[in-house]
Amino acid sequence: MNGKGKYVLVALGLILFGLMVWYFSNIVAYILIAVVLSFIGRPVVDFLNKLKIKNWRFPSALSAGLTLLLLWFVMVLFFRTFIPLIASQAKDLSNIDVNAAMQSLNEPIQNLEAVIAKYSTEGEAFHLKSVLVKSFSSFIKVSDISSIFSSLAGTLGNIFIALFSISFITFFFLKDSSLFAEGVVLLVPAKHEDGVRHVLDSIKNLLMRYFVGLFFEVILVGFLVTMGLTIVGVNFSTAVVIGLFAGMMNVIPYIGPIIGATFGIIIGLATNLHADFYTQILPLLGYMAIVFACVQVIDNILFQPLIYSNSVNAHPLEIFIVIIMAGSLAGIIGMMLAIPAYTILRVIGKEFFNRYRFVNKLTKNI
User: Fold this and answer.
1) Which residues form the domain of 267?
2) For the chain, what is the domain count?
3) Transmembrane stretches, by residue range (predicted)?
4) Is 325 inside any structural domain?
């Protein structure tokens, strides 16, 4: 077979592989989630495997099983702790009489309406208060919360299948760290086997550091936001909910902190509509903005350099460009997956395409 025929076969193979991934996307998602969980649990498995009690050592299956149980315990504890707080916060928001509470905002609203009317080119008056009442009513409406839980209840069967599948796959990835690699090696020609093994080993080490670091970043950002908001006067349960959301949104590079801060300030305003605007609400919102700004500075100086730069050995500007490109292609999901995907591509490029000067430049720090 000539060279052109080989390229055609490779192209057809890649197309077929892409179609299979798309058709079995749920299964692929289960496997990828299991890989991430195995990365997070790998240090625990390694510790148990090295632990020796007299002359007895933990079997690999027992180490994997205990680690999986630990992961489940942490997740159950997380939801058991935070779901009641979120439900309580949603209930408190739903009990707010927006029309009565908005009385404290009459004066600043009238001032804003006067400014808008002064510079508006439209003849019809703009009623800011009615817009705010409608917006806040939609934001705190309990029926929206109920619809979310109804939707989750309707998909309970699918959720159970997903959780069981992910747990089952994760157990075997924890039990045998080379299982995923062996499965990938089966799909490549024998002459590239050593190179693929080296690529997978490098990817595993880099992504393990990245996901473990990301896990701790979410916890630390959520903790700092919660403590900061509590100090400036936000109710503790409300601060916990805002801190949890801010920590989770922080996974989205660059725009995630903005989303978290916006959500927090809206919650802070919605839960204090009964207070005087100038003496209570406005100072509180200012203090909340300062808390979010300080946490973001700490995150940018201490946390993110360790996770986004050092963990994947890439320059911050390089990471920024990749994230923006991924966001333009696939939105928020693309931004979340940009760094892991770019890490994988760099490792593959270093192993198989390092003869090119451009690739060699991008991958020299790996």
Assistant:
1) 191-366
2) 1
3) 7-24, 30-49, 61-83, 148-174, 214-245, 251-273, 285-307, 319-345
4) yes
